[in-house]
Amino acid sequence: MKRLDRYVATQVLSAIFLVLLVILGLDFVFAFMDEIADASDAYDMPVILEYLLLRIPGRFYEFLPLSSLVGCLVGLGMLASHSELTVMRAAGISTFRIITSVLKPAIVLAFFSMAVGEFVVPVTEQVAQSKKALAKAGGKALHSQYGVWHREGNTFIHINAVVPGDRIEGVTRFEFNQDGVLELTSFAQSGRYLEDHWLLSNISQTTFHGDRTEVSQQRNEQWNMGLSPTLLAALVVEPRDLSLSALWSFSHYLYQQNLQSDSYFLAFWSKLFQPLTVIALVLIGILFIFGPLRSVTVGQRIIAGVITGLVFKFLQDILGQVSAIIGTPPLIAVLAPILICLLLGYVLLQRSKV
Q1: Which strand (E) or helix (H) includes residue 349?
Q2: How many CA atoms lie within 13 A of 74 on its CB side?
Q3: β-pair type (197-209, 155-163)
């Protein structure tokens, strides 16, 4: 039986990685074309390629559920096309036993992807976004298309780049009074985190006094902002690219600041249940082969897998948006599509007469 497990696992995993390689390749090409359109003297070909290569772990994590579904359909479909599944069942091996042989490597792959999403993706995404932001900003006081915006109290902050190593580049601040009148603007070329505060360097400050302005220069300034480097890094990348610990901390920070935090709570639950998502989609793929797709071509199976995966993704996205509008807990928006997949899997399992 161990030999059977290894054989089935090899066939399915090789198909999953082949599908994943194709999807990542196509995504890389399309992303490269988009970035080339934004190329400049500073944001040149080497920077673009480095940026895209650093984003590959994040794309691997994002595309794994869909790739697992399609790869499972292709791998088991090839076994079915060569009558190997028929031979296995004729030899007395139950359908349930074959399903178990496929789920074992799928579970390992699911938790491996979770480890990548927790420890690799947050680092590579921050480095990638920082390199792009530094190249695009070029030392300007404000470049709203790149960098990050944040509000703390009555101060609006724009940071060109958050660099790994507790450093920030290009900090622009707009301070308003309680009546919403602008009182002060400043731009600091750089800053670094020291124990419990930020130390800004080379600051140019403009103070507004009714009908006149006052401009001053400072070499250094202690800045007591509530965001630590860990929390600040959460602003640089998309919520789905953060670690679970960063998502949890940043979600509660936004909640305390009376800022929108639903997207971060949604991303937290999505990452936490990512292994269950992969397992549910793989189960759907397995039962498609033993059920309604056992007599169709490989191409039709791939189409069915892509459609199922996209429907799952769209359903999760739609429920996430709806939950933010009507106030439904993000946990429900994440679990609902997974439970629907598991219910569909149960129905297909019953129809396959295991």
Answers
A1: helix 330-351
A2: 20
A3: unpaired
Amino acid symbol at 259: L
Grouping H, G, I as helix, E, B as strand and the rest as coil, residue 293 is: coil
Of 327, 344, 230, which is closest to residue 292 (Cα–Cα)? 344
Distance between CA atoms of residues 295 and 80, nearest Å? 9
Q: State the CB neighbour count (10 A cutoff) for residue 157.
A: 20
Neighbours of 325 (CB within 10 A): 8
Burial class, 60, CB count within 10 angstroms (exposed 0-12 / middle 13-18 / buried 19+): buried
The pLDDT value recorded for residue 206 is 92
Phi-psi region of 166 (alpha: psi -120 to 50; beta: other; left: phi over 0): left
Q: How far apart are the first and last CA of the chain?
A: 19
Hey, how many other C-beta atoms are within 10 angstroms of the C-beta on 321? 13
Q: Is 108 left (phi over 0), alpha (psi -120 to 50) or beta?
A: alpha
What tokens were used for 200? 């800004």
Average pLDDT (280-298) is 76
Residue 186 near residue 150 (C-beta atoms within 8 A) = no
Q: How confident is the model at residue 354 (pLDDT cuts 50, 70, 90)?
A: very low
Burial class (CB in 10 A: 0-12, 13-18, 19+), 8: buried
pTM: 0.82
**How large is the C-alpha radius of gyration of the chain?**
25
Instruction: Give the position of tokens 């509000």.
Output: 151
- What pLDDT shows up at residue 144? 47
Q: Which of 112, 122, 115, 148 is nearest to 55 (CA)?
A: 122
Phi, psi of 163 (to 5 degrees): -100, 135
Rounded-to-integer distance, Cα 73 and Cα 12, Å: 8
| Residue 295 pLDDT grade (very low, low, confident, very high; cuts 50, 70, 90) | low
Bridge partners, 185 (sequence order): 174, 206
Q: How many CB atoms lie within 10 A of CB 160?
A: 27
- Give the whole-angstrom CA distance, residue 37 versus residue 237: 21
User: Can you point out the beta strands (E) in 179-261?
Assistant: 182-194, 197-209, 212-223
CB atoms within 10 A of CB 16: 26
Residue 125: CB atoms within 10 Å? 22
